[in-house]
Amino acid sequence: MNHNEPSKYRFSEAPIWELQRAYYEEQGIRAWQSEEVPQYITSNPMIATAYAEIIFGFLQDRARLGLTSAPVTIVELGAGSGRLACQVLKELCELKDYAGLPLPPFRYVMTDLAIRNISYWQQHESLVPYVEQGILDFAQFDAVSGTDLHLTQSGERIGPAELEQPLLIIANYFFDSIPQELLYVDEGRIFECDVSLHVPDEATKQTPSDVLETIIPEYHYRRAAEYEQESYPYHSLIELYMDKLEDSHVLLPVVGLACLERLGQLSRAGFCLLTADKGDHRLESWEFAEPPKLIHHGSFSLEANYHAIQYVCEHKGALTLFTTHQYNNLNVGCILMLQEPINYAHTRLAYRRFVDRFGPDDFFSLKAWFEEQTSVMELPQLHAFWRLSGYDAQLFLHSTERIEELLPTCSEQAMKDICHGMHTMWKSYYPMEEKPDLALACGRLLVQMDLFEDALVFFERLRYVDDADSHILYTMALCYYEVGKEAAARNYAYRATALEPDHEGALALLDLL
């Protein structure tokens, strides 16, 4: 260990936050492609559907008020890989088209700090169609100091009070990853927790991720009576903590609250926040809380203090919606900072149906059980859960081995249903060069069902068909043969034998041709 006495910092000003920024700016989209940074729980079809339904309800509420001319701007903070945005847009567009109701137009703005992520989104095949429709734009935004939004595609600048409609904000895994204050409450007094960071000597020359992984924080307590003064902006919240908490460490999301305040100023009509994170909105969850541990995953994250966010927003007149039951993995909330928020019945009902009654957190808990039971499930159960998930690609890939085992006893209609599910799944799939290749998994399964024409649809989507091995090339040749495209069949059979001259299947097929 480094034997020099380490410096002490306010928790919100510690070097860990600069390392956090450096990690995301250095890695760009690779942070998600490598699966270092978790994204599934906040970027799957289930949560995308829940958000789309709530947004659709919000649009209905605005229409009921007769406000359908100006567009509703949806801003996603820290949009990361872009997968959530793509899935929300797909579902929202389908809802709007299916309903055929007079609704205000909308535009979705994906934001991030890292310019490299924005460049990736601008070129992504799944996002380009929404850009071309004029309903998707991008902006760089710094949660710590950002004010205006400068849209990259339209060139528009959104400044204070320029939006007629309320701003709709999406913030997933956001509040847990930006600077927070750390306080200690005991015997009716507030202490600030400063931090010193112990880093092995050899780690100082490594990447931000490596340094973050080796850091050992040490906390130091100092009396902080300034938080107890009536002039402190969140004085009533601090008073509550002094009255109700003992021997408790509390993360105070001052930066997050200030960010919401600045974003709220962009609209003359307030904002609606959709947010999901690990962190509780119940005061009792902070009782006797230990010092926070840095949860490392390439970057790092902490708990989000949804109690503080809920409390501050409610004291400004907001209506806040959180589940009536304890969350397990992901707390999903909706905050309506609007004039007479109780009147937003469609929004509230959508939250009730798609989050509180059974929502993304419930699904994630059930998915963990499903993955343990997959090997003993029958096809109707597998198919039902896949449909419940919104034809989730990860769920499908986990189930393919079991589906293959069940195919010999599978009915023709069941095979058609699985085939239909694959095509539906692909419509909302957001490719990120992950392994295994979803198109290949679909193609192989369809071949086993003798659905050769459908299999070719997926084989032709393979990312690296020019680098395919002899078995894949032969399988494609077989599909082309079965659908009567003999020239293509001959071409792929020859390519298979070029890689493996003694490939029996390819040689036999060439004899037939």
UniProtKB/TrEMBL annotation:
Entry annotated with the keyword Methyltransferase: yes
MF term (GO), any: methyltransferase activity
Superkingdom as given in the UniProt entry: Bacteria
GO biological process, one term: methylation
Keyword Transferase listed: yes
Keywords of this entry: Methyltransferase, Transferase
Protein name: SAM-dependent methyltransferase
